[in-house]
């Protein structure tokens, strides 16, 4: 089984972000785990709990509701790995020269080397002591330059000191499987005599192996979710692209319908214009005939009036028969002309009401894939779902509207 992720594999900048509390933006201090598996400084959680005034608090990152256990913040599980990451970050920062390294064994003198067994930075004097004293036999001392060249992987991780038993003061180096807790050697004689227990150095590797093996199903779930997310993103892209295609089809169809209507409108307007022109020409011709006739009759009227008023009795009597005959002829002749308009303003149109056009002209609908139609609601996480959008618009064709 492959080993879990080593914090030394991460760049220093990323590791720095991981040891920074999202609430106070400082380095984690006594980090505690919330049930949602996000972790914050103990004091930060205490402040959040105080601000919630007895109500469940919400995780600042995932917003999940969390109720503190009866023991309060102190009863929350500690985030053990955070302290390990802090230790890794501190050593990496010193090894890469981002933080000045001082001797961790004797004084505040600047360190010049690193002991891989002590997992501490040491000064020149302590480095020489490591070479001379028997207590340091077998210790490997590396210069800071060698440490930089070797990178973070060349820095050994310091094991956490064993926790002291509260009852016996002895280090807890064993684990009781019946009680599921750490115990010391004295505990095995007194309270856990008949229990199943084992040294940490023996049972911890096996527990790590078991937990890593148990991760496989969860890792499969994560992989499936990642695949499903990619599918969703792909479908979102397809839906957006399909929407644009459908909108283009709708626009083209209604542009065609509008073109048909515009063409028919132009035909009807032209027809109305030609009918009006015919009627106006007929009326104009009739008006010209009437104007000529009116002038002829008016001229005769004026001629008769001048003779009646301006001639002698002898003259009027001489031409009276002639004048009477002429007036009678003109009256008969002009009475034959029609005084009624030969054309009237009776142009009309017959057009459909806008209400004739249905409100559901055309449609946009979703057509599911056959698999979903046959088995609705049975698709699983990671399965591909295809959604197609269609548009249908009725073609009006060229409409014939009588005038």
Automatic annotation (TrEMBL):
GO terms for molecular function: zinc ion binding. Residues 98-144, 160-200 form the B box-type domain. Pfam families: zf-B_box (PF00643), zf-C3HC4 (PF00097). This is Tripartite motif-containing protein 45. Keywords: Metal-binding, Zinc, Zinc-finger. CDD domains: Bbox1. InterPro entries: TRIM45/56/19-like (IPR047153), Znf_B-box (IPR000315), Znf_C3HC4_RING-type (IPR018957), Znf_RING (IPR001841), Znf_RING/FYVE/PHD (IPR013083), Znf_RING_CS (IPR017907). Residues 21-63 form the RING-type domain. The keyword RNA-binding does not apply.
């Amino acid at each position: 089984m492959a080993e879990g992720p080593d914090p030394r594999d991460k760049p220093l900048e990323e590791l720095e972000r991981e040891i920074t509390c999202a609430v106070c933006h400082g380095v984690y201090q006594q980090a505690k785990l919330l049930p949602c598996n996000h972790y914050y400084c103990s004091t930060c959680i205490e402040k959040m709990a105080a601000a919630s005034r007895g109500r469940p608090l919400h995780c600042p990152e995932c917003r999940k509701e969390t109720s503190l256990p009866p023991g309060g913040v102190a009863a929350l599980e500690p985030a053990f790995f955070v302290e390990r990451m802090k230790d890794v970050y501190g050593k990496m920062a010193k090894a890469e020269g981002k933080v000045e390294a001082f001797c961790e064994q004797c004084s505040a003198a600047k360190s010049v080397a690193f002991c891989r067994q002590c997992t501490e930075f040491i000064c020149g004097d302590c480095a020489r002591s490591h070479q001379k004293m028997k207590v340091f036999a077998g210790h490997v001392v590396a210069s800071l330059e060698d440490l930089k060249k070797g990178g973070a992987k060349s820095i050994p991780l310091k094991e956490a000191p064993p926790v002291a038993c509260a009852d016996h003061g002895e280090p807890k180096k064993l684990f009781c499987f019946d009680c599921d807790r750490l115990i010391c050697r004295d505990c095995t004689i007194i309270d856990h005599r008949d229990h199943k227990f084992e040294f940490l150095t023996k049972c911890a590797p096996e527990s790590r192996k078991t937990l890593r093996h148990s991760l496989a199903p969860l890792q499969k779930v994560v992989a499936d979710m990642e695949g499903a997310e990619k599918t969703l993103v792909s479908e979102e892209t397809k839906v957006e692209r399909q929407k644009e295609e459908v909108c283009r089809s709708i626009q083209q169809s209604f542009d065609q319908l509008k073109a048909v209507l515009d063409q028919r409108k132009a035909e009807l307007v032209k027809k109305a214009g030609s009918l009006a022109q015919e009627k106006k020409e007929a009326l104009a011709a009739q008006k010209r005939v009437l104007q000529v006739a009116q002038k002829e009759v008016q001229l005769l009227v004026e001629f008769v009036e001048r003779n009646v008023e301006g001639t002698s009795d002898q003259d009027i009597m001489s031409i009276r028969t002639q004048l009477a005959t002429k007036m009678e002829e003109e009256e008969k002749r002009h009475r034959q002309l029609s005084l009624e308009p030969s054309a009237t303003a009776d142009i009309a149109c017959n057009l459909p009401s806008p209400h004739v056009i249905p409100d559901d002209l055309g449609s946009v609908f979703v057509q599911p894939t056959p698999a979903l139609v046959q088995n609705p609601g049975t698709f699983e996480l990671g399965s591909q779902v295809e959604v197609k959008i269609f548009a249908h618009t009725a073609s009006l064709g060229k409409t014939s509207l009588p005038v």
